[in-house]
């Protein structure tokens, strides 16, 4: 039986040309795939549709860092590897703590010196954390998401991974946004005292 929110998700999925499964489809290799998008003014939803589970090449620890400016706009980076906008994020390198990795990734991708001020959440659900790269790699990320504040630096990328940097209002996000990132931002805006575990 489909109730409330699931019925709304089903209707949205059908209108978008997809299919929504209330329960995981039976059969070998079937799984949920979550597509996230923002619709004006900031409406967030998931459309789940059946996909064939690809072989996951690796599982990687990752970090994501949400930075707001004085107008409560969020900093996004247009990434060179996928040509999509997203929250500054990256891998944890050997010998690093997740906090050290977060600070390093922000510096490399944005040129900003930041300090971590709170833990937003830890994300590992394959629904949203399995990512296919254009080169064919399929990676399952376990991502620790922080909020950080800017201490210094200049908004200028320090590496070739970044094509553009811009602050956006949460109600006016770009359409070409990495599919897992709206959930992180939604959780950050909830200002929940206890970190999310998803």
Give, in order, the helices and strands.
HEEEEEEHEHEEEHE
The averaged pLDDT comes out at: 79
CATH class of the largest domain: Alpha Beta
Q: In the CATH hierarchy, what is the architecture of the largest domain at level 2?
A: Alpha-Beta Complex
Distance between the termini: 24 Å
Q: Largest sheet, described in full?
A: 6 strands, mixed
Unreliable runs: 1-52
- Using the CA coordinates, give the radius of gyration: 17 Å
CATH topology description of the largest domain: Nucleoside Triphosphate Pyrophosphohydrolase
Q: Strand pairing plus helix content: what structural class? A: alpha+beta
- Count of discrete alpha- or pi-helical segments spanning 4 or more residues: 4
Beta-strand residue fraction: 35-45%
Shape descriptor: globular
Could you name the CATH homologous superfamily of the largest domain? Nucleoside Triphosphate Pyrophosphohydrolase
Helix content: 10-25%
Number of domains: 2
Question: How many β-strand runs?
Answer: 11
Cofactor: Mg(2+)
Pfam families: NUDIX
Family: Belongs to the Nudix hydrolase family.
InterPro entries: Nudix_hydrolase, NUDIX_hydrolase-like_dom_sf, NUDIX_hydrolase_CS, NUDIX_hydrolase_dom
How would you characterize the overall build of this protein?
This is Hydrolase, NUDIX family. Its cofactor is Mg(2+). GO terms for molecular function: hydrolase activity. There is one protein chain. By secondary structure, this protein is an alpha+beta fold. The protein has two domains: 4-52, no CATH class; 58-197, Nucleoside Triphosphate Pyrophosphohydrolase, CATH 3.90.79.10. The protein has four helices and eleven strands. It has helices at 4-15, 98-110, 126-129, 181-190; strands at 30-39, 43-52, 58-67, 74-79, 85-86, 89-91, 112-123, 130-132, 138-153, 162-168, 196-197. It is globular. The relative contact order is 0.21.
